[in-house]
Design brief:
mainly alpha; globular; 53% helix
């Protein structure tokens, strides 16, 4: 192994989000899967957000690059600022940012019956943290609404094909 290679210190970043919203049905789903998987609710929500960012990485990276270009700063400087200080710390736009593609979450709406659920924070890698922040910024929602909609989208898309059978299998009578 090359002794001159510097390995960066890796440490997840905390994205503070004190709560999110969940429909009563989705709250039951998360509780049931949490009970059978042994995962904490915070772990599940973190996984859902990471999965969303992974599936939509190209969209959010493109948006981040356009944002950096409109502010006339390097992408590296943009990333360091967003991770360490937040979007608010970026310099003002120097040129207009036009032709922003619609958000992948644009059609996801929370149920009127959604209830507040305590969360505290989720842990993300540096790039995921920056992409989440740029997603929130351009989605025109706050972080609570954005994460809540990611959770709703994840459960709508995956409950039947990924989770329901695992929950049902906790009862031996459902094994086939």
């Amino acid at each position: 192994m090359d002794e001159n290679i510097e390995i960066p210190e890796l440490m997840a970043e905390r994205f503070v989000i004190s709560y999110y919203y969940l429909s009563p049905q989705d709250a039951e789903r998360i509780e049931a899967f949490r009970d059978c998987s042994g995962d904490s609710e915070k772990t599940l929500i973190t996984q859902y957000v990471r999965g969303w960012l992974g599936r939509n990485r190209d969209y959010y990276l493109d948006l981040a690059r356009k944002d950096a270009a409109a502010r006339e700063i390097s992408f590296q400087q943009w990333g360091e600022t967003v991770v360490n200080q937040g979007i608010e710390a970026l310099p003002a736009y120097r040129q207009a940012l036009n032709n922003i593609p619609p958000s992948p979450l644009r059609d996801v709406a929370l149920a009127p019956s959604a209830e507040r659920k305590a969360l505290n924070y989720i842990s993300l890698g540096k790039q995921n943290l920056a992409l989440l922040r740029v997603g929130v910024h351009y989605d025109r929602d706050n972080a609570i609404g954005f994460v809540s909609r990611i959770v709703k989208e994840h459960l709508d898309r995956n409950w039947e094909k990924l989770y329901a059978s695992q929950v049902a299998a906790e009862n031996f009578e459902n094994w086939k």
